Amino acid sequence: MKTIDLTKQSPDLSEVIQMARHEPILLLTQDGKQYYLSEADDFEREVAALRSSKAFQAFLDKRSASRSTISLDEIEKEIERDLAKR
Fold first, then answer.
1. What's this model's pTM, rounded to 2 decimal places?
2. Which terminus of the chain is more solvent-facing, meaning fewer CB atoms within 10 Å of its CB: N or C?
3. For the segment 29-40, what is each residue's pLDDT rounded down to a tens digit?
């Protein structure tokens, strides 16, 4: 996967698409957000890229460490309360 830091370089869209034809692209924006670009039908490469993504793995680790749960009954009651307010 190729990473493009948009704070350091500004390729035009056609350049980025051309790069994405060869490998997935991770775009890092000036506000710290990250965007992933790859061929829409290239699921296997997407999976491989996410497996090698430290940021994505950290996200999964954080999510799996959370032990809080909400029962389905609680969610249904919350939805009913929200609908009743409307």
1. 0.47
2. C
3. 999 899 988 887
CB-count exposure of residue 79 (10 Å: 0-12, 13-18, 19+): exposed
Cross-strand partners of 4: 27
Contact 52, 60 (CB under 8 A): no
Sequence-separated (6 or more) residues with CB below 8 Å from residue 13:
none
- The domain ranges of the chain are 2-85
Residue from 72, 38, 65, 73 nearest 53 by CA? 38
Beta strands in the chain (DSSP E): 2-5, 25-28, 34-37
C-alpha of 8 from chain center: 22
| Distance of alpha carbon 56 from alpha carbon 66, whole angstroms | 16
Residues 41/24, Cβ–Cβ less than 8 Å: no
